[in-house]
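General statements about sequence and structure are easier to judge against a single worked case. For one protein, we set the task of working out the structure tokens from the amino acid sequence alone. This step matters because it turns folding into a mapping between discrete strings. The amino acid sequence and the backbone structure tokens for this protein are reproduced below.
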Amino acid sequence: MPPPPPPSSPSARHTGTALELLVHGVGGTTPQEMLDDPRTVRVTGDATAAVYRRTEDVDGEKHPERYRDEPVAEAYCWSGLTSGNGSRALWLLLLPFMVVNLAHWMRPSAVGRTRAVRLYGVLVRLLALSLTVLLTAAACEVALDLVAWQCAGIDACAVRRSWLGFLSAHQGGWWSQPGRRLALAAAVPAALVGLLWYLSNRTWSAYESQRPLDGQDFDTGDPFGMEEAHGPGAPEPDAEGCPRPTVPVRPALGRPGFWYGRRLVARLRAAHTAAGFLTVAAAVVGAAARYDRGEGGPVAAFLGTAVEGGIAGCALITVAVVCRRGRSERTRDTRLDGALITYLPGSALALLALAVVHAAWSRPDWQSAGTLPGEAAFRLLSLGQGLLVVALAVVARGLYLRAPDPRTVLRGLGGPVVAMLACALGGVMTGGVAQRVADWLDGPGTPGMGHDTDIPGPPVVLSWQASVIPVLLILLLVPVVFLVVRTARRARRLGPVIEAEYAPEQPDEGRTRRIARIRATAALTDSAPWIVGVVSAATLLLGAGAVAGAWVSDEVPGRAADGRGPLLESLADAAQSTGSWLIGLGFILFVAGGRRAYKDASARRTIGILWDVGTFWPRAAHPFAPPCYAERAVPDLASRMSAWTATTPRGRLVISGHSQGSVLAASAVWQLPDATRRRIALLTYGSPLERLYGRWFPAYFGPEPLLGLHRSVRCWRNLWRATDPIGGPVRICADPDPGVDRGPLKDPQAYGRTTRLPLPEPILGHSDYQADPAFAEARADLLDALGPRLPRQAGAGLHEDSSGRSSG
């Protein structure tokens, strides 16, 4: 039950302990660093995420006279949710699933477009399902086609691989028949699907099973929360993108079910697991059924047809499950569809077992030749993904045009662009594995080229997709050069501005150049949307060209260019070989870099913000995406604030969030009852709330939700710097200006050496906001707005600084 509501307004005698709840950003910050004290005590929580205090502050509420000038400091440390041992780098293999899950949350603000919102969600979920099928198909390509069908069926390849001896066709053993080799190899992709199911189920229990605070469900007359998200009548924003004046509304992130979608995740897990098993079953039974229909062998043809029919029927049910139902944010999704999550994967697994038995039936005269049937499947997958992305773009654009916001990235096309990148990542990763395995099995030859090769190689379309990667990289040189030139020019223009800011200090050309370069580089963050858009558009066009080339020529690029002139032949060969090695090398570097990021704090700070943005959002589109840490962190923070305000009725609470911690803080505040939010002040610094989340996720952090957050809390201050590449102003649109943003703060604090600061001051950028005097000033303003301070008592000692550090 929610805590009892406090008095509607503080009385003149409202005096009590002040608490500052610190929430760090990315980077694995320790409680000792946050509280600036080696002696800390865990107040509540566990080894994964917990609240800490200094040892001397444990009973701070009993001695409010000690904290007249400084609040009691608490640190919520959630780094255990996103960092740990190096084995977690394996989560990076699930990056395409995480990226397509992001696309679900990037839809434009929906104003009275319930059907369009549903269609948007269906399209994203279908794209996510296609990625699961693609990953499983790639595993089947490696295990069933390249190893069991091609290499084990060709003497020259099998002889060089002694571990394939028992499968070799020339040895004539029990496993030498093609169907039995396929049946055995099917264990590899089936085990991969089972592993994904296990990880999804286990991570849900470990990370996302925290029930949010009890709260009042929304009116059944507004089942999708449209009025709560956008206000009665759904007012449109003005010309500057600011929402027109309305009463405060409860945004989507404040709904009871937003951080608890157990039912949807369970349904999607069942559907994707079934899709994986069905993909393996189709790969196993397809070759055997085709042989039976053509050769009149010992197995009746109708048996294979029956199994294929069962696979097709189960696949249709799986697609229907994915399309039928999305998230329920109005209420907590606590129920489970027991029959569905039990029988759908079970039926798919039973069909896989039937396919294995059917393929393993004795066919003495069957010999494997060429490639395993499946070339068309990869082509159709690529074509289907492209069509789904185009349809998603049409729907997203329609939603945006209904209520355009100039700050929304790519005019509402951010979701489709990111979805296209997810498909490209899936294609590169799966194609890279297939290419590298084929090169390894083929020895000195180049698969698909037809000379000095032992095996035909992977599907032709994978070679075409690999060949467009060098072309894509060359095309990207143009925007990269443009950005470098523009940044250099911007830095030169900033020089006089910076010297004027620090006047009358003597100009130092080197110091000015360095500050200007850092400011200009930090501004590159605002150019990211159109760079991502260019990459996505080029990927879509080149991918379409690759599919068309594979379909028309039915040859790898190197062979398709034969007879078309020496220049074209050499370019095609170079593109094919370079692309194959690039995706293999990129895959290795990707995993190695991810492992280093989890073990090296400095590397984690570099890429951590991107990873933490991806894993901040619940798994609404893909159940095999990395777990959502916010489904643990947000209820933790909301519960702590609710409990403290309930037990300290005269207390004042400031929740202070840095970087990604500010997003967690805002999300937790939204989850609180209205009366509790009125007793809380919010302090954010280095915050990506508007610069990143507001632009890329406008339906959840756009102008109106942020305005609603400002109106629902007692007060809010946001600190930002021009040298910060991540944080920025939150741009609350209200008249008069509410004064939430304080910045840009001066960075560095001193231009040169001064009497007070005799050594050169560092340029802090995104870190150490507490080192700026503006931080203490903003916190004091918030505490004053919450209520009067406790009068100083004679003989009461002043408490030492407890601002702590919460940088990421």
